[in-house]
Amino acid sequence: MANSPSGDSMLDRLVRILDAFDAQNTSLSVQSLARRADVPRATAYRLLDELVSHGLLARDPDGQVRLGLRLWELANRSASTLDLRHAALPFMEDINQLLGQNTQLAVLHEDDVLVIERLSRPGSVINQANVAGRMPVHLTSMGMALLAYSRPDVLEGYLERHSETMFAQHPKLHHELAEIRRNGYATFDGFIDPESTGAAAPILDSTGYALAVVAVVVPRASELLPAAVVALQTAARAISRTLAA
């Protein structure tokens, strides 16, 4: 695609516009969107018209812009995510019913934990995870379980890029990762919310590396934690077998 005077391509600008939305900014004015995407306002107006016409963005009656339903439709055609969700959902529903707490499924993507499914539960403990939301690896049991069971090159690359952040939160990081591998799950108290404990078990491929994790958040010091760990490990193994089949 043709480059702009600044050297970025049309595709670069389109991706920045779509990427400007996040969990805290689900709708934006054109001015805010242009600023967050770092594109001229005139360019933003022109590109928005095209994106809206294709259903990738939508305009609210008040002029605010939000992501369009066609993006959700396209994202749900991802074969790997679709297979994973279909395999995991029956077991997630069992955990959700057993524990009465929110249950989620996540993968490691672009150095973040990407949540691809979540089952909510009335009266459950506060949980910051949202479907299609990203969470920091170093502050979640999901991220630490994914990292512990990552391929060596993935782990090394991640630590090269984020060693300062990781070791600030986890001074004994390598010991913690080894402990997670030894136990087959990760649990951490109060990293994101002081009143909760996260627990996660890896869903492994045929070579023993993590494809994803299944996780729950329970009240801190809850008697549910031992049962949660057993349920997660059982579900993770079953999901792995289902995917292999």
Question: Can you characterise this structure?
Answer:
This protein is of the alpha+beta class. The protein folds into two domains: 10-73, Winged helix-like DNA-binding domain superfamily/Winged helix DNA-binding domain (Arc Repressor Mutant, subunit A), CATH 1.10.10.10; 78-244, GAF domain (Beta-Lactamase, 2-Layer Sandwich), CATH 3.30.450.40. It has helices spanning 10-19, 30-37, 41-53, 69-75, 79-99, 141-148, 152-169, 173-183, 225-244; strands at residues 27-28, 57-59, 65-67, 103-109, 112-119, 134-135, 186-189, 196-204, 210-219. The strands form two sheets. It has a six-stranded antiparallel β-sheet, with helices on both faces. A three-stranded antiparallel β-sheet has the order 1-3-2. Helix 6 crosses helix 8. The longest helix is centred in the middle third of the chain and has 21 residues, at 79-99. It is globular, with a radius of gyration of 20 Å. It starts with 9 loop residues before the first helix and ends with a helix. Keywords: DNA-binding, Transcription, Transcription regulation.
How would you briefly describe this protein structure?
The chain has nine helices and nine strands. With 245 residues, it is α+β, with helices and mostly antiparallel strands.
